[in-house]
Amino acid sequence: MTQTPLIPPTVDPGMTSNSSSIYYSPAISHAVINAPFDREVFGSMWTTFHVDANGYATGSRPFPIPPAERPFVAESKAFYSIVGAKPNLTVIARANDSQFHEAGVYIPVTNEVYFTSNILNATSDIGEYQYPIYANFNKISLNDTNGNYDWEVVPQPSPQFVLPNGGTYYDGKVLMAIQGYQLNVPSSIITFDPLTGKTETLLNNFYGRPFNSLNDVAVLTRARGIETPVGEQWVFFTDPAYGYYLQKFKQYPRLPSQVYAFHPPTGTIRVVADGLQKPNGIQFSPDMQTCYISDTGLLSEDPADSAPREGSGPGTIYAYDVVHPEPGSDPTTDPPTLVNKRLFAFADNAAPDGIKVDTEGNVYGGCFDGVHVWNKKGALLGKILLGLDVPSDLPGVPAGRGCANLVFVPGGLLMFSEDRMYLARIKAKGALLP
C-alpha cells in the first residue's frame, strides 16, 4: 500500500482574513510521510528529508518550508486567537556575536529589558577580562525612536557577577541566576537595582556545597489568588550541571541537578524537584498553582562531546502542582512544595529552554527553531519560526534561528536568538508582568 503524504496547506480556507503572515499546518497534514525519511534532532520539522536505502539524503523533502513572510505557523486554529489578525515579526537588534541569549527582565519604570549574552571567549589583548570566558549583562530600551531600539552592555555590576544567565523581576530589581566560574566565583542568586546599579548576593551555596551552574529563576508571588508581600515570596531556581558537562567552566558537580525554593528574608532553602537530567527553564502559571520546568537532558552528558546530536534524552516540559505555605506560617517550617509531576509537553525540535506564560495560561517555550506555544492542557497550538530569511548551505532551505529565552513586554513578545533580537507583535498579553 502506497503511503501518501499530506502536504500542509499554505492557506486555511476558514481563517484567511488579514492573516497573510500565518502559515496553517494542521497535524493531519504531516501524519504520514512517504518512507524512507529522516530528520536531524536539532532541525525544524520542515527540514525532514527523504533518504535512500542506505540512509543518505536524496535531496527531496516531504514538506514545503513556510516562506519568510509567514513565520507564524498554526498547528491549531486556536493559535489565531493568540497571535491575532495581523501578527508581525521584526528584528529589532543585531550583533556580530551571541549577545541576545538569556534572562529577559522587563523593568516598567525605565521601559527597558535586561538580558544576557551567551558564553563568549575573552580576547587576549583586552585586559578587562578576568577569566578566559565571559557573558555580558545587557539592556535594551523599548522607547522606539523611528524604528530603532538602542541596546548596550552594562558594566559588570560586581566581582561576583560572573557568567549571568537567567533572570526575573523581583521587588523592583533584576533577580539573576549567576553561573560563576570554577570555585573562584560560586554560582549565586544576585539582585541588581536598575536605578542605582547596586547588587546584593542573596545565596551562593547549599549548606556549604557549591551549586553547579545556576540557570533560571522564577518568583512565587501569589497564593490562593492573592498577591503575597515580598517578605513572604519564594525564589525558585534550577541548577543543572551544564557548566561542567557541556560548557566546561565549572568544577565537577557537588550536587545533583535539582530545583530549589529559597526564602530570602530567612535564608531557608529546600530542594523541591529532583529526578531531572538537566532542569533548565522555570515558570509559574498565572494563578501560580502550577510550576513548569523544562528538562533539556537531550544535550550530551559526555564532556568529550561538544556537538551532541543524539535524541534519546528529554526535551520536555514537566508540570507540577504547587503546594503553598499556610497564610502567616513560619517559612522555616512551612515551605512551599512541588507535587504531582507529570509530562506537560515534548518539543519536536530538540529541547525547550526558557518558559513564559500569557494571561490565558498558554505556555511559550524557546526552542531550536523559534518559539512553540502550548495551551494549558499541553496541546501544541503553533510556532513562531525564527530565521526563515537566513540562508543556509542547502538550496531553498533557511538556516533558521533558535530561541534560548523570551519575555513578554507591553505590546508584544521579545525573543532572544543569539545574534538577533526579535519582537513579535501579537494579541496575547504576558502574565506575571510587573
UniProtKB/TrEMBL annotation:
Residues annotated as domain SMP-30/Gluconolactonase/LRE-like region: 187-392
Annotated TM spans: none
Protein name: SMP-30/Gluconolactonase/LRE-like region domain-containing protein
InterPro entries found in the cross-reference section: 6-blade_b-propeller_TolB-like (IPR011042), Oryzine_lactonohydrolase (IPR052988), SGL (IPR013658)
Pfam family, one: SGL
